[in-house]
Design brief:
Structural class: mainly alpha
Shape: elongated
Strand content: 5-15%
Strand order of the largest sheet: 1-2
Oligomer: single chain
Distance between the termini: 36 Å
Number of strands: 4
Number of helices: 8
Helix content: 55-70%
Largest sheet: 2 strands, antiparallel
Length: about 170
């Protein structure tokens, strides 16, 4: 069980109860100490990022972790001591939860948009209209006019369609 699960609930048999503050403090201290690799009493950006990952907080990029460390770093030494950590961890958990919710909603909206596009392509446009649309897109993407799309032209074509594919998804296609 990850620390996030231990912090969010206290298991007693089959029933889960919210973790009481008295139980939370030692877990947070344990979490902090476990990631203070150099035992300095302070976390640098890498240690803080490791703490977030082990706590089950969704992946934050290096820039986001740096921003959290900067916000928590009251004495501006570039490190986060335990009291600074305590002042920010609630906000980080809330931000992570909001981010996860946003990603779920975005994925849901993207799926709905894809379904609507498929419906339009199959129910509203004729076969000839779809073929004409695809040919127009192909000709526009064929920058060197050789009748084929090289990988770079294909990537540009997919990105120009602005249908929500990420670069890894385009690469996978």
């Amino acid at each position: 069980m990850c620390i996030r699960d231990r912090v969010s609930t206290q298991s007693t048999g089959e029933t889960n109860y919210p973790m009481e503050a008295a139980h939370l403090a030692p877990l947070l201290q344990e979490l902090f100490n476990a990631h203070d690799a150099d035992k300095s009493g302070k976390l640098d950006v890498a240690e803080f990022a490791s703490l977030l990952r082990s706590a089950g907080i969704p992946q934050m990029d290096d820039h986001a972790v740096r921003r959290v460390v900067e916000a928590a770093d009251v004495d501006k030494d570039g490190l986060v001591d335990y009291s600074e950590f305590l002042s920010q961890i609630g906000s980080v958990v809330e931000l992570a939860a909001a981010s996860a919710t946003y990603k779920e909603v975005s994925a849901e909206r993207f799926a709905q948009a894809r379904e609507e596009a498929a419906r339009i392509m199959t129910e509203i446009l004729s076969t000839e209209e779809v073929e004409e649309l695809l040919l127009t897109m192909f000709v526009g993407a064929d920058a060197d006019e050789n009748g084929t799309l090289d990988p770079a032209e294909f990537v540009n074509c997919i990105q120009a369609l602005d249908i929500g594919f990420t670069m890894p998804e385009v690469t996978a296609i």
